[in-house]
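Quick one: structure tokens for this chain, please?
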Amino acid sequence: LGEKRFVGDLVDRHPAIKKLVGVADVAIAALLAAAIGNGVEGIVNGRVVDFIPFGHAHANLADFMVFFGAPLLWMMLDFFGQARKAEELRQPARLATWKYYLLPILAVAAFQLSTAAGLASVPVVAWYGMLFGVLFGLGVLLSDGYLGGKIAEFNRAFRPTDSAGAKVDPVAPRMTGTYRLKKRVAALLAGLGLGVSAPRMTATDYDALVARFREAPPKLVITDYDDTFLDNSDGKGLVVTPERIALLEELAAKNIRVAFATNRPLDGGTYAMSYMLMEKLPEHLRKNFIISTGGGAEVYQYGPNGEKPAAAARFNPMNEREFADLRRLMAEETAKLGLTPIKQEEKGYEFSSVFAPGEMKVHQLFPAFEKAVRAAGYDFSVTLKAFDDDPKKKHLEPYIRVSKSSKTMAVKGILELLAAEGTKVEPEDVIMLGDDFTVPGFDSAMARALPQGTALAVGKGVNPKLENVYWLPQEGPEQTVDFLKRIIR
């Protein structure tokens, strides 16, 4: 099947490859049997017996063997090629599953176009195309779920070894088939442009996730602060409590490093992280403590004796020309809507425009302003934070925030500082916690920064395109605390 997809020499080293080679043999045999069966039946009987009606089209057992077997074989062969590449580069393999859905999507689109055009000679062909799209799409979905586990099993071979030479090999969460299927379906629907959320975990699946990290605890937990670690439902924020400090103590005792990634600044009065968190921690917890502020723009590391750093270890500021362009663009777009910000803030790393509570025009302003920023050639993170759909926060001021950074930079900066001090952390050993995995520029950026890490959502929804995000059963900081306590006790 070609040198790039030859994996015969990998069979003895990788049990997952050995299993898949056996499955590939069965898939090839099934496809040949289906093709030959239909062919022989057509020659002998002059027609192929179809027994499952679908509109104007029909399917038989051979059709199912083809439409389910073909995507499985196709995806396995592609994985074999990725496995070969992974062996050469000594890095985990990945499979871009989105491309396999293109054929069924095109088949369904062709059906819609042909029937909408009212072409008299097309309907039967269109119905067969629709049948193909449904069966092939279902085959891709099932194959994707099956191969996901085998790819994870293969990738564990690239994990480091412990002092005895044994693989540090955490077991993948044993999620129910129903939950895995719901995640795949939600991702497929989101890919089609439908506004759906990923499924929330059931108690059974949550227990499986807890069991995975209890068996192999994370080395690093990166968590958001507001509404993730502490409750900010009243919009004022909270100073860290003795109970939360005790939790940080327990995690440290289990050699689990905790870092924060927040949009708040480090300094700036009672709403800043120095006042709310860092000054309240005991000295031994502040030692080498890493915290990212400004939505990833700044990453600080405290000293070996817990002393506050004089400057950020990582910093990504805006320059005056960039601030001037953003002021101009915001003025132009707000003027079109007859809208005036109640205040604007310019920090070293961000530009923010704040509006009156309940101002609905911000929902019109945001896409127009973001488009203007992109047209000006800036690849900044542009986000809208509005509270009109939350009764508890309706009194808060909505704002549009522009930053040269995102929490992607927070994750990368934290890992870089750990590596600089000699602490090696594999992506599979990282948990990222947040409450907003729906908006691209907020906590979603953490999940995108580390796709092989595990992100946990304690908010009101999750973008289903983020495969490594699990939506936990309950909302809010108490869910964060419950999970962390469960994995260490």
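The radius of gyration is 26 Å.
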